[in-house]
Design brief:
- 2 copies of one chain form a homodimer.
- Chain A is built from 15 helices and 12 strands.
- Chain A has 390 residues and is an alpha/beta fold.
- Chain A has 2 domains: 4-41 and 285-388, Alpha-Beta Complex (Aspartate Aminotransferase, domain 1); 48-282, 3-Layer(aba) Sandwich (Aspartate Aminotransferase, domain 2).
- In chain A, the strands form 3 sheets. Chain A has a 7-stranded mixed sheet with strand order 2-8-7-6-5-3-4, with helices on both faces. The first copy, chain A, has a 3-stranded antiparallel sheet with strand order 9-12-11. A two-stranded parallel sheet of chain A has the order 1-10.
- In chain A, helix 8 links the parallel strand 6 and strand 7 (225-230).
- In chain A, helix 4 runs parallel beside helix 5.
- Chains A and B meet through helix 1, helix 2, helix 4, helix 5 and helix 11 of A and helix 1, helix 2, helix 4, helix 5 and helix 11 of B.
């Protein structure tokens, strides 16, 4: 599994948008958006086909089908050590919408939310969509750096409502330690804040690192936490648009359901996407383990090759299939380097722009390594050649 | 086709929510939400299975796949006589979201939108979600009544931005005439208003009535019109959550795309839903014709049987698979009658409450007849028996 032979470039060139194969010029290798080059697990396709063959796509429940909610609850109870009531799970059309929903539920005009810097742009974007104020706090640029808990507490004001936790952290690949999570959780309790725990990357963690959900640290912390997750990263289901929101209790569940706008039918989650997730969680554990094992090898290749290039400094991520090398010593900024790599190396990367990750991402680029060894090495060779020939 | 034997009550009881089989007590016939009891066309299930079997569900384009946009554009060009550029089509996760998007694009705080009374609640709901003011104008309660165009013009103020047209009109089953549409369109031109043309019911029109899209009446009217449609009514795809938004030109398209929030990945349309719609529009014309033919027979049975009941007055709808009988002469209000029918007749109907349809729906109930002759007759017999035995 996870060989180059499995990858169907013909299909990727038709189907993979968002800066990927179908959206780049012919001949370019897109190490851009975090979306695997491999086909999904065959069990998922079979589950979809079976459900579709019965030809009923009636209105789903606003909160999601019980088969979905039960599967998600079982997963979080057994694999994340967060005892989860299926009645507090909501099927949503993406983790991105789950983040927005959480902001809608807890942020009113002028309210503040703590947002990491750097982190994926969706947190700031969602807070500001609710007329809230995104308050950036610096988090380590290296995966093994520790969060500065005093800085976090100093950023809390009377208007703070939410701490946005992204664990593992996109783009740096940091996996938070239990000690850090306990510190963050205790601050949330002390200041009566909700923790938005974005766990979309939580399957992609490389040993010896271990994933800890902040909601598993203590019951008191769990009661302050809304978990948001999705299935695009682990299972390659971005186009199905599906995620989960998990509330710890009835009160927060009702607030989240109201914020979802599902009951009016304006939003909701496609039933086949729910079928796919049930299959992913129930039937694809071996497939996922194989994928993570492959990714760990790809990470090692990626880090080793990038560090051989003069001017590039790359730390090994603990989680996520992303590397986030510092590129300042090349003498170029991220956009100049991005353009050079696209034009000369025919490799597309994501520049560490403030608008995508916060201003501390400046001087970095981000590359995804969720591809075959052959494609990854070809991409890295092209980058190496262009940068060494300058 | 469209026989009782085709209906899988076992699956409906697992899958049909939103007041339908899976959401009512055992033994109750739900003539409630507008969602067919029949399985979808087999071609749709096959198209989904084929796409799924290739196991790639990568990120779709924000605006929708080109196969989807081209199919939708071809349909509107050929079947609706609205020459449609695929580049101005957006795949959305429901017609309901299409309505909200249109309001987001054109309504700011305090802006006004003309909303029919009665009509589906989603128009008022969406306008108010954007801090707009929903200005109700009375439309005929009988399908053959004509709109009072002076009343519409009198409702227009300097703050009016939008006319919300629902054609065919849910819940009355009125299909607007070309003359009426021209009058409405000319008002929109004169007052520089956008027309939101909700065409989700446009396939379900009973001869001799003919559907006219307001965007087909003249090029000038088309340029003021955003078409919103969906595929749940015609093809039974509510659970796939899919609709289309069609802008007439680049400027309105860009406004709609911005309002969609698709580019941030917060919202979007599931790829399998897009595959289903392509198959529905390209391969299922015969299936749809058979469905509409069956529905016309069901309408006739429904209207005839209901009118035999003392106190119930039912007009034959020109479009939609809904009847909307006046029930005031029963001496009951709609909620009392709804409860009586649920408890004694074991038939669920939708009461004509102000919150669902506007205050002119008072004294009516709404029934869906998208089922088999056997189930429909059983439901009508039960209603007749209970009301005649009072």
């Amino acid at each position: 599994m996870f060989t180059n032979q499995e990858i169907r470039l013909d299909l990727l060139k038709q189907r993979a948008f968002n800066l990927r194969w179908a959206a780049v010029p012919e001949g370019v290798i897109p190490l851009t958006a975090a979306d695997p080059d491999f086909p999904c697990a065959p069990q998922i396709a079979e589950a979809i086909s079976k459900y579709a063959s019965e030809r009923y796509f009636s209105y789903a429940p606003a909160e999601g089908h019980s088969f979905f909610r039960e599967s998600v609850a079982r997963f979080h109870t057994n694999k994340r050590h967060v005892v989860t009531n299926p009645d507090f799970v909501i099927a949503v059309d993406s983790a991105a919408y789950g983040i927005l929903m959480t902001c809608k539920a807890f942020i009113s005009e002028g309210d503040e939310a703590i947002v990491f810097n750097p982190v994926d742009f969706l947190f700031k974007y969602s807070v500001e969509s609710c007329q809230g104020v995104s308050v950036p706090i610096s988090v380590p640029l290296t995966p093994d750096g520790m969060i500065h808990i005093e800085a976090l507490e100093n950023a809390i004001t009377a208007k703070t409502k939410l701490i946005c936790l992204c664990n593992p952290l996109n783009p740096t690949g940091k996996v938070f330690t239990k000690v850090e999570l306990e510190q963050i959780g205790n601050l949330a309790i002390k200041h009566k804040l909700i923790i938005l725990s974005d766990e979309i990357w939580s399957d992609i963690v490389f040993e010896p690192h271990v994933y800890t959900s902040i909601a598993s640290v203590s019951e008191a912390i769990k009661q302050q936490t809304v978990i948001v997750t999705g299935y695009s990263k682990s299972y390659g289901l971005a186009g199905l648009r599906v995620g989960s929101v998990i509330a710890p209790n009835e009160k927060l569940y009702q607030q989240m359901l109201l914020a979802s706008d599902h009951q009016s039918t304006t939003h909701g989650c496609n039933v086949l996407a729910q079928v796919a997730v049930k299959s992913a969680l129930d039937d694809c554990e071996d497939w996922l383990q194989g994928f993570v094992k492959h990714l760990k090898n790809m990470r090692d290749i990626c880090v080793e090759d990038l560090n051989k290039i003069v001017g590039i400094n790359c730390h090994a991520p603990q989680g996520c299939y992303l590397v986030f090398p510092a590129i300042t010593d090349t003498g170029m900024n991220a956009e100049t380097l991005q353009t050079l790599l696209l034009e000369k190396a025919k490799v597309a990367v994501v520049p560490g722009l403030s608008k995508w990750f916060g201003d501390r991402a400046t001087g970095h680029i981000r590359l995804s390594f969720a591809t075959s060894e052959e494609i990854l090495k070809e991409g890295l060779n092209r980058i190496t050649k262009v940068l060494n020939e300058r």
